[in-house]
Design goal:
Length: 292
Amino acid sequence: MEVGFLGLGIMGKAMSMNLLKHGFKVTVWNRTLSKCDELVEHGATVGETPAAVVKKCKYTIAMLSDPAAALAVVFEKDGVLDGICSGKGYIDMSTVDDETSTKISEAITTKGGSFLEAPVSGSKKPAEDGQLVILAAGEKALYEEAIPAFDIMGKKSFFLGPVGNGAKMKLVVNMVMGSMMNAFSEGLELADKSGLDPQTLLAVLDLGAISNPMFRLKGPTMIQGNYSPAFPLKHQQKDMRLALALGDENAVPMPVAAAANEAFKKARSMGLGDKDFSAVYETVRQFKPSSS
Ligand SMILES: NC(=O)C1=CN([C@@H]2O[C@H](COP(=O)(O)OP(=O)(O)OC[C@H]3O[C@@H](n4cnc5c(N)ncnc54)[C@H](OP(=O)(O)O)[C@@H]3O)[C@@H](O)[C@H]2O)C=CC1
Ligand SMILES: O=CC(=O)O
């Protein structure tokens, strides 16, 4: 099966590599073309533009940074819209808001193509291991056609109904995750400043009711101050911003998420946007008393 793949960042590279390793023929495109090289070494073909990829493949997957990127790849010259037609599918797995997804869906379906949004939960390692959780919504027939690929990239796929529901589910999940990361950062700092061993805090947390893989995975590297990016902080802040907008639309008070968003914004202003989202720890860690 020939599939297209647009966007070879942290996630797209791992996901398309898995498809290749499991026997899919993959045609890739990335704005910075040099990022295609490693995929080519593993058997991928390169398309010169998104339109060229879409013209060649029965369906094309995209994994792009944010709404602006997702819209650019579809609507700009030689973009997805220039290649899409009846019988072809477009699957956007980027994390965007439902308005962006709906705009893309309308443009694709107006040209006769079919559209599925399918954002994912899970970071670099789950992407490498084919352990993502896929949150699909849109054209059911395209979802069913894509199941063999989803089964390679993920451990579980959900079909959530009409376009927008996948985007919303992903934003709700990441709103919770971003808020938890901030509470965790404050807990680490509080333990440290009050004379406790943060490593012992990790052990205690891991044995109790709020034990979770994120604390387990990120805790040790945060204590070391190692923020090598798996999930870039700028993307987590984008997700908080989009989730807060969804809260506005639905009149849902979200004071905890709003505070977490401010912390991620502060981290971005400190130059930490390209670090892992756990670098938000630095926003509380920096306020060290000068002599004590
Ligand atoms: N990393 C993670 O843990 C997870 C990320 N996500 C979501 O997946 C998406 C991708 O994340 P990730 O791979 O980490 O991000 P990266 O920042 O590593 O990659 C972003 C990709 O988007 C491309 N891009 C950005 N702007 C444009 C544009 N204007 N036109 C064309 N291409 C563009 C980049 O191209 P170029 O190489 O040229 O810059 C790159 O291929 C995001 O929506 C993120 O929120 C979801 C789950 C987990
Ligand atoms: O969007 C990020 C994730 O870890 O999921």
